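Fill in residues.
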């Protein structure tokens, strides 16, 4: 998908593990791009975070990242995850509610990615079911 602005969405049901992510504006085999991560394993009580990837390595989360509210049900609940990409503004919604919003206004030599593909990722023995994956262009 080589357009600059779009929304990527998916229904996801996390059964176990430390989380999953959605790649966007990703390029190359070694991954240069971004992920949004639905991450119950990040801090306590988990967090919704955006990360930059450079040559296949995930960088520290963008600040600010959003910790989940106390009592948040990470597991066993189907969630609608939506990432809206508009210029340098990245917005994540879970079940229609904004959970993270950042502006990528990095300066060289840190790369800013303007286009690329989308995809899914998991880590740490995660078991998750994905359904209704789609990309919409405004």
């Amino acid at each position: 998908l080589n357009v600059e602005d779009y929304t990527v969405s998916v229904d996801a049901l996390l059964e176990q593990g430390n989380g999953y992510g959605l790649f966007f504006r990703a390029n190359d085999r070694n991954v240069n791009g971004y992920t949004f991560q639905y991450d119950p394993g990040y801090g306590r009580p988990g967090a919704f975070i955006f990360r930059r990837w450079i040559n296949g390595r995930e960088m520290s989360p963008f600040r600010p990242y959003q910790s989940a509210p106390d009592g948040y049900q990470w597991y066993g609940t189907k969630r609608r995850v939506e990432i809206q990409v508009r210029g340098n503004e990245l917005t994540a919604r879970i079940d229609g509610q904004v959970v993270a919003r950042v502006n990528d206004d990095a300066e060289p030599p840190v790369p800013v990615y303007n286009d690329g593909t989308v995809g899914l990722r998991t880590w740490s023995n995660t078991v998750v079911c994905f359904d209704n994956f789609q990309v919409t262009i405004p």
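The first strand starts at residue 6 and ends at 16.
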